[in-house]
Automatic annotation (TrEMBL):
Protein name: Cyclic 2,3-diphosphoglycerate synthetase
Signal peptide: none
Organism: Methanobrevibacter arboriphilus JCM 13429 = DSM 1125
UniProtKB keywords: ATP-binding, Cytoplasm, Ligase, Nucleotide-binding
Family classification: Belongs to the cyclic 2,3-diphosphoglycerate synthetase family.
Chief location category: cytoplasm
Length: 459
């Protein structure tokens, strides 16, 4: 037997009232449904009264009106979910009152409250959030792929560890292990040869949790996931089991790392959201971009440099974030490479997932700060055939393969370089605020950690 669903219906004045009333009666005739209220969201074509009390009397149930009939009462919808403890918001409206953009805005607000948003041919569900952690925790989520989420996660984990919070990381990826895998980054010496051994055993040794372990030198727990929904849920993941393992290890703080735009299905005390300034602005300001932004306690905007973005675009994104989530701190950043080994005086082939448009900036940074000569670059770590072609082009002219630990970094870049007798050095990417007008990034991350600990202790 189904549980009773408490439903708030969205209605408009473009429908003839008896038609709307009939639709609600059909809903209420279902044994598992209780329509507790309706919210009038606009439209006047077939509205025969502007008196809310008369409309409600004709409807035969509570009807709630917003302050302006020409504006969708988004906040009122949220209030009604809370007031009636509603499980579902059922949309009985249509064009022209609602269009796709307005419906996604409603969906973002409804699922944020933990309710379903349902219509004749659609349903958006709230995020899955298992209440598992028995320690303070935060999650790091992104608005898309290739925006630097793992780089920021590794940076944050290292910072949190260096400041004595004793964290571990639970990461999920599309190449993660069948059973959650503990990698003791705090104990293992993770060399190129060691990663090749793992790869030869069938392990995806460039998966996010290996990168976290290598770059942060802390205990990581690797999980897998498949599929990603529009609001961030996944079809399958073993992260729930990974979270249970994190409860048992000796760490005192847990960092849950998302995968692309997929969000860890674990309830945490705080959230850090990453937004790529290189993304189409439509994907940030529409669909479920606002939902992800609304979750954040801290927003880190990445890729904030030309040609990936422009000052006007970055300003527009920052203003939109402030509008959606005025309580979240915003820091706009760029990434700069940091080798995990000495490359001074050496000829280097640099393999990266960064777009080719920023190649010159990255090369200059490496040469000026680490005393190397970058003979060649390849942006094709995520394209094995093109990566191999670039390696063949430069391999006889370099001493070192400098590579990020991404995609084909182990089974192609490391393998081919070791076989050719080259030294392999792995490279981190460090987020840096674009100027000193922004809050300090280190301090802001640690404030989130302190806030997570405070919220956890109040439970």
């Amino acid at each position: 037997m189904k549980n009773m669903e408490k439903i708030v219906c969205l209605v408009d004045g473009e429908h003839y009232l008896p038609v709307t009333k009939s639709a609600i009666e059909i809903l209420n005739s279902l044994e598992h449904v209780d329509v507790v209220a309706t919210v009038f969201i606009g439209g006047t074509e077939k509205l025969r009264t502007d008196n809310p009390e008369s409309y409600a009397k004709m409807m035969g149930m509570p009807v709630h009106f917003g302050p302006d009939e020409n504006e969708i009462p988004y906040d009122l919808i949220v209030e009604m979910i809370k007031e009636y403890n509603a499980d579902v918001v059922m949309d009985l409206s249509d064009e022209p009152v609602l269009d796709y953009t307005k419906r996604f805005k409603i969906a973002s607000k409804v699922i944020r409250e933990g309710a379903l948003y349902r219509g004749p041919d659609f349903e958006f569900q709230p995020l899955t959030e298992y209440k598992i952690p028995t320690k303070p925790s935060l999650k790091i989520l992104g608005t898309g792929k290739r925006i630097g989420k793992t780089a920021v996660s590794a940076f944050a984990a290292r910072l949190i560890d260096e400041n004595g919070y004793e964290p571990c990381v639970v990461a999920m990826g599309r190449g993660g292990p069948e059973e959650p895998e503990i990698v003791r980054g705090d104990e293992l010496k993770i060399t190129p040869e060691f990663l090749m051994e793992q790869s030869n055993k069938g392990v995806h040794a460039a998966s996010d949790h290996w990168e976290d372990a290598l770059m942060s030198r802390i205990l990581t727990i690797g999980c897998r996931r498949c599929g990603g929904g529009m609001s961030g849920d996944v079809f399958m993941t073993n992260m729930k089991k990974g979270a249970e393992i994190a409860n048992e290890v000796e760490s005192k703080f847990i960092i849950f790392e998302g995968s692309g735009a997929a969000i860890p299905p674990v309830k945490t005390d705080k959230h850090i959201a990453l937004i790529g300034a290189n993304q189409p602005i439509l994907n940030i300001t529409n669909f479920f971009g606002p939902f992800r932004i609304s979750l954040a306690d801290l927003v880190i905007l990445t890729m904030c440099e030309e040609p990936m973005s422009t000052p006007s675009k970055m300003k527009a994104i920052e203003e939109f974030i402030s509008e959606i989530n005025p309580n979240a701190k915003i820091i706009s950043t760029v990434f700069r490479p940091k080798p995990h080994g000495d490359i001074n005086g050496k000829n280097v082939l640099f393999a990266t997932t960064a777009p080719d448009e920023v190649k010159d900036v990255l090369v200059s940074h490496l040469e000026e700060n680490y005393g190397c000569k970058v003979v060649g670059t390849t942006p094709h770590l995520s394209n094995r055939p093109l990566l191999q072609k670039d390696i063949e082009k430069y391999i006889d002219h370099v001493d070192v393969m400098l590579t990020e630990l991404k995609a084909a970094a182990v089974d192609v870049a490391t393998k081919d370089s070791l076989e050719a007798g080259l030294e392999v050095v792995y490279c981190d990417n460090i987020p840096i605020a674009i100027d000193d007008t922004y809050p300090d990034l280190d301090e802001s991350i640690l404030e989130i950690v302190d806030g997570a600990i405070e919220d956890f202790n109040k439970k």
